[in-house]
Design goal:
Blueprint lengths: L4 H4 L15 H20 L7 H10 L1 H42 L12 H10 L2 H20 L5 H15 L2 E4 L5 E3 H27 L4 E3 L8 H4 L5 E3 L2
Antiparallel strand pairs: 1-2, 3-4
Length: 237
């Protein structure tokens, strides 16, 4: 009785790899776009202003830029909890329905596993200080590039903006030491919490139905620890 990927991930990516609308990853993608626009606006040279004066003004404006970035991040943070509650509830409901169907059971389905919403919320909020740090560093780098540029300084500013747009907000490292950008980090964290919530719900539901043993599906996993259990019958406890 497998937990399908659909049950574990109703708010995944589309066939083209884009986040589904109204999903948590989509919110962070929109935040990245907003912050890029904010960075471009703060770095835009005023027509006719001498470059030494622009550099001084840009450096003086860095605290204001940082405050603006924090405001955008906090705006998203304030919306996260209801988004997570809704998404996790959808995941749990789908997993519960699948388990009930597999076990041929019509009893009461379990609710959201304890601590799931809080755990995901904490994991996402932990990413926020890095967002501010990367935008602040990028702002500083753009000003330094423009101040020392040979030729048109606006080219150096645009190159900095293009670099950030291409690589994303970086600096996120998982337990295995792999480095990700913000969007990949968010999607990975969200998917892992969804999958765990779906699994917990599935097992709890079939347990209520009196199921004591499950067959592990054969997916030809590339992970050796998973592959060694495929095709085996296991007790739930």
């Amino acid at each position: 009785m497998p937990v399908s990927s659909a049950a574990a991930d109703p708010y995944a990516t589309t066939d083209t790899g884009e986040p589904q609308p109204d999903s948590i990853p989509a919110e962070y993608k929109a935040l990245t776009v907003t912050l890029l626009a904010l960075l471009a606006a703060y770095l835009a040279p005023k027509p006719g202003m001498p470059w030494p004066s622009w550099v001084q003004g840009a450096l003086a404006g860095m605290p204001r830029f940082r405050t603006a970035v924090i405001a955008e991040v906090n705006r998203l943070a304030a919306r996260l909890e209801p988004l997570i509650e809704h998404a996790v509830a959808e995941v749990v409901a789908a997993a519960g329905r699948e388990a009930a169907h597999d076990a041929r059971w019509s009893g009461t389905l379990p609710g959201v596993p304890h601590g799931t919403v809080e755990s995901l919320l904490d994991a996402l909020r932990a990413a926020h200080p890095r967002i501010v740090a990367v935008l602040e560093d990028t702002y500083r780098s753009a000003v330094q590039r423009a101040a020392t540029a040979v030729g048109d300084p606006t080219v150096a500013i645009q190159r900095t903006l293009d670099d950030l747009a291409a690589r994303g907000i970086t600096g996120y490292t998982d337990r295995a030491g792999r480095r990700w950008n913000l969007e990949t980090y968010v999607e990975t964290v969200v998917r892992s919490h969804y999958a765990q919530a779906a699994l917990d719900t599935y097992l709890q539901t079939v347990g209520r139905a009196g199921v004591r043993f499950l067959a592990v599906s054969e997916n030809k996993s590339t992970h050796i620890e998973c592959r060694s259990w495929e095709g085996k019958n296991l007790s739930i406890d």
